[in-house]
Structures are given as C-alpha cells and as structure tokens.
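Hi everyone, sorry if this is the wrong subforum. Our group has a chain we'd like a structural model of before ordering constructs, and none of us has done structure prediction before. Sequence below.
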Amino acid sequence: MSAVGLPVGKVDYFQLFGKVKLSSRKELEEKWEKCQIGQQFCEYLKEKEISYTWCIRHPEVLGCSESRDYYQRYQEYLGNDYSICKHLLVHERKGEKRVFLIIVDDAKNVDLSRLKEQLDCSKLEFVNIEEMQDLLHTIPGNVSLFNMEFDCKCKVNLIIDQELLDRKLLAFHPLYNGMSIFLTPENAIKYLDIIHRNANFMMVPAKKKEWVLEKVI
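Answer:
Right subforum, don't worry. Here is the predicted structure as tokens:
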C-alpha cells in the first residue's frame, strides 16, 4: 500500500491547498474535516485487509476529467492500465422505479436506452440530489462504489461494466472527492463481499459514434 503526494498533517494540508481558489480559513477547515473522513475510510479498508496500490490527495474534483488532470502528474507511478470509474445513479421513470448505480470507465458514453432494454425496465433517468443523499449519503461529484455501504435498505442495484475487470487498477474516491485510491478489481469485489452486497457484471452498452462524411473540394 503506497501513498503519493500526501500531506502528513493539517498544517501541511493548509500549505498545499490554502491557495486553491483563494479558499477561506473556514472552507479549509471544512475540507480538512472531509479529508479526515477519507483517511478514516482508508484505515477501515486496511483493517478489513483490502489493499490499495496508490492513494492520491488532491483538490476536490467534480468530474472524471478533473480527476484525470491530477492523475497525469503521477503517470510514472500509475502507468496506463487503470480506469477512472464513472458512476451513474439512475432510476426508472415509471413502474417499479428501481434504482441502479452503474460503474463504467470514464471514457464510456453509456447508452441508457439500450441499457434499459437489457435490464428489462422502463426509461432510465438520473436521480436528483435529494434522492442521491437519501440513498447513498453523498452529492454529485462524490459518488463512489464505497457509498454502497450506506444503502442500508438495499434499494440500489449495482451494475459494474464487465470491461473494468480487465483493468489492472480502478480509481475510486474513498468517500471524499479530494482523495483517490487505486485498487485492483479483485479488491473492489472483496469490499462488496465484506458489506454483503452483490453486483451485476455485464457489458454496459455505449452510444454508437456518429460518423460525419464530409465532401472534400
């Protein structure tokens, strides 16, 4: 288990991130508290003997593209065979209104219309912020596989793209989008076993690319 670029304490954290978007002291204190949640969760994984290869602390990110920008700074450590995991929390518009957390590589543009056919369900749409908080105790930009432990009533059906199982490492936020950990697919599945949750591993359909033919004159 390794750490890359991790400030060791509160003072180091303030020195590293204190100038990010001119954060106020109060904002930094709040971010530090959230950082502590991430650190405590990493300790929890360690106690459960779920190992991760790398841990990176960075300013809070709101999407996969922002995460990639920071990860590229550690390319010599991370290599190229990893996936930044994109999380889509959706539910059926009608009928049973089942909820699905779909995890895919960030480069995949999921075709929800084809996916609903595979799942034999009604049209899928994204949940609102209030429902996300109720189901997984988180907000957009901070959704992770690890939030499944908050789904105490087992309302969320987990779908993991089969393609992710072929990657060397998978990147997730440890309950805080200012930190990222990289672990093997096997250890991600081990985490699900520990919290007694199952996942549906399937080939999640991607939208077909539209090719435009241009006439050269």
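For your construct planning: The chain has a mean pLDDT of 86. Residues 59 and 178 are 5 Å apart (CA to CA).
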